[in-house]
Design brief:
- This protein is an alpha+beta fold.
- It has two domains: 175 residues, Galactose-binding lectin (Jelly Rolls, Sandwich), CATH 2.60.120; 39 residues.
- The chain has three helices and eleven strands.
- The strands form two sheets. Strands 1, 3, 4, 6, 9 and 11 form a six-stranded antiparallel β-sheet that branches. A five-stranded antiparallel β-sheet has the order 2-5-10-7-8, with no helix packed on it.
- It is globular and about 35 Å long.
């Protein structure tokens, strides 16, 4: 989506403006789950104290790419929650990634879902780091891409003071969290696909430099290059320094150059 151009600030004469570096371009890297082989590893956790329901399963009718995506249907009671979660038995090293990226397809604009990244050493000891996502028109018409750099994942207030940072070298999985904090039920369907690590776009391969050779002067079709006469002293030096063999070689070379230059026009005449 095009961004509005910033309004330039007034800069004194001779002053160089400071330019904030742009973030590196990114692309989807290693796939965490594209739901092509099933979703048995994804499980539902829900608030059992409330009338809250959530189901998640493989949907072959909706996918961003491949044969299937993940469909999540939720009906969350007021002040309740539920997740569709993927939890690993042991820590995974996501350190090569810059963050997470997902594709979302939605029923309507404004559906909210929280991406949760789990960190820890075992499934029994998980720390939660969250990033709230909201669907836009792109998600309704097709698939919305959401990129989440590691530094955008923060601990919820009920678990920490917000200063801890997610450690991708101790990743234990992730989840899609739905809640209803505004006093009303929250119901709907959402589709997810291509959950991947976010990686930097490799720089374009450098174009090899071509060797630059001096171009011969242009000679007309019926024109022959004539060497400039030298003065008498130079002629004498030339006579003394040349032997008959070298003179013959030079003559052959000159004829070859003239023939090479005339050859394209000769070929055109033959055509």
């Amino acid at each position: 989506m095009p961004q509005p151009a910033p309004v330039p600030s007034l800069i004194s004469e001779g002053e160089t403006p400071a330019i904030d570096p742009l973030p590196p371009p990114s692309e989807a890297g290693e796939v965490i789950d594209d739901f092509e082989r099933g979703v048995n590893e994804w499980v539902v956790f829900a608030d059992e104290k409330k009338d809250t329901e959530l189901t998640c399963g493989r949907d072959e009718a909706n996918s961003h790419s491949g044969a299937a995506g993940l469909r999540i249907e939720y009906d969350i009671a007021s002040d309740s929650w539920a997740t569709c979660s993927l939890v690993y038995p042991s820590p995974q090293d996501w350190g090569e990634g810059l963050g997470l990226t997902v594709r979302l397809h939605a029923e309507r604009v404004g559906q909210q879902v929280t991406l949760v990244a789990y960190q820890g050493n075992s499934p029994d000891s998980l720390s939660h780091f969250e990033f709230q996502m909201q669907t836009d028109q792109e998600a309704v018409a097709g698939w919305q891409r959401v990129d989440v750099p590691w530094n955008q994942l923060t601990q919820p207030s009920w678990e920490g003071n917000g200063t801890a940072r997610f450690d991708p070298n101790r990743a234990m999985g992730l989840a899609f969290l739905f809640d209803a904090p505004d006093g009303r039920r929250n119901s709907g369907q959402l589709w997810v696909d291509n959950v991947s690590l976010l990686s930097a776009v490799p720089p374009a391969s450098a174009t090899p430099e071509l060797a630059v050779h001096p171009q011969p002067s242009v000679i007309s079709e019926n024109e022959t290059s004539v060497p400039q006469p030298a003065d008498e002293s130079e002629r004498e030096k030339g006579r003394k320094g040349l032997c008959p063999g070298s003179t013959a070689i030079g003559l052959v070379t000159l004829i070859g150059v003239i023939w090479a230059r005339r050859q394209p026009s000769f070929l055109k005449e033959q055509k």
